[in-house]
DNA sequence: CCCTGATTCGC
DNA sequence: GCGAATCAGG
């Protein structure tokens, strides 16, 4: 496949939106993860915090290549790389879901249902929703399972390039990028989330036990692209 | 081993 | 410019 403008646009959008290279490659189709990464770098996009690592420290040791080319092709002394690893603003972290940690030093009493963080959001995945008014009736310490972004999540964080996305509107993608009818949800977001209430329910799901994963949750797209 | 991104280097 | 091979790391 070749890198058409459209494909590059999709790559950029998804890369910047936090999609993993694998996801991007899968979405684009016809390219490998490596191809996506390579292209991303060539495009000048670079190092995003890897979803899997918090602190990415890479020391490229001058690796001796697999002894196959004794020929010294190019003596490329690499100049000291600028240490500037400007940490990009971390995207909205996990919502302030109730943490099981008894973070309530104010009361020595075992009654810990006193000072829990107020949660104002919807909890499709099972996490709490609490308005300022409702104080703490039934706040089960029941820690919602770790929230994980659903598959589509990344592919959407587009800027306003394609549409008039803003922090106020739901960024849930409808359709596939590049397709004529591709658009975003666009309704008012669930406060603190990039999506509307409805799509938050899709984007954030309770992490199920290993064994009990449901493979076919509703994909945001029409489903896997047919190739 | 799985995954991730980063880098290299032949093409 | 492209991307497979490879590396480094969680």
- The helix content is 10-25%
Radius of gyration equals 22 Å
Strand order of the largest sheet: 1-4
Please identify the structural class as seen in this structure: mainly alpha
Shape: elongated
Biased composition (Pro residues): 135-146
Biased composition (Polar residues): 101-114
Pfam families: GcrA
Organism: Qipengyuania vulgaris
Please give a structural write-up.
The chain has 227 residues and is mainly α. Among the domains are: 5-43; 153-208, no CATH class. It has four helices and four strands. The strands form two sheets. Strands 1-4 form a two-stranded antiparallel ribbon. Strand 2 (173-174) and strand 3 (183-184) form a beta hairpin. The structure holds a DNA duplex (11 and 10 nucleotides).
Task: Summarize the helices and strands and which ones pair or pack.
Layout (H helix, E strand, L loop, with lengths): L4 H12 L4 H8 L4 H10 L104 E3 L23 E2 L8 E2 L12 H7 E3 L21
The structure holds a DNA duplex (11 and 10 nucleotides).
Short description:
This protein is mainly alpha-helical. The protein has helices spanning 5-16, 21-28, 33-42, 197-203, and strands spanning 147-149, 173-174, 183-184, 204-206.
What are the main properties of this structure?
227 residues; mainly alpha; two-stranded antiparallel sheet; 4% strand; elongated; disordered C terminus; DNA-binding
